[in-house]
Amino acid sequence: MSDDASVSAGSLDPALLAVLVCPLTRGPLRYDPQAEELISDAAQLAYPVRDGVPVMLVEEARFIG
């Protein structure tokens, strides 16, 4: 990874997104740049991205269902 973390100007490093999965379902995630969240459609959860770091804790996720 580069020195600018994984997020810059509202974008997520595609290589990082390719390896991250939802910790609850092990399913794929999609990035919402406006909300700065990683979305698990299967779990109906949104994981926050804080200061360029995805917070992949179910306890920190927001229910979106």
Number of H/I helices: 1
Strand content: 25-35%
The global form is globular
CATH level-3 fold name = N-terminal domain of TfIIb
The number of distinct structural domains comes to 1
| Biggest pleated-sheet summary | 5 strands, antiparallel
Q: What is the element string, with H for helices and E for strands?
A: EEHEEEEE
Helix content: under 10%
Number of strands: 7
Radius of gyration, taken over Cα atoms and rounded to an integer in Å: 11 Å
Low-confidence stretches: 1-9
Q: By helix and strand content, what is the structural category?
A: mainly beta
The N- to C-terminal Cα distance equals 32 Å
- The CATH architecture assignment turns out to be Single Sheet
Indicate the mean pLDDT: 88
Oligomer: single chain
CATH class: Mainly Beta
Task: Kindly describe this structure.
A hairpin with a 2-residue loop joins strand 1 (7-8) and strand 2 (11-12). The strands form two sheets. Strands 3, 4, 5, 6 and 7 form a five-stranded antiparallel beta sheet that branches. It is built from one helix and seven strands. The protein has a single domain (7-63), classed as N-terminal domain of TfIIb. Mean pLDDT is 88; it is low at 1-9. It is globular. The protein is mainly beta.
Secondary-structure blueprint:
Layout: E1 7-8, E2 11-12, H1 14-19, E3 30-32, E4 37-40, E5 45-50, E6 53-54, E7 62-63
Antiparallel strand pairs: 1-2, 3-4, 4-5, 5-6, 5-7
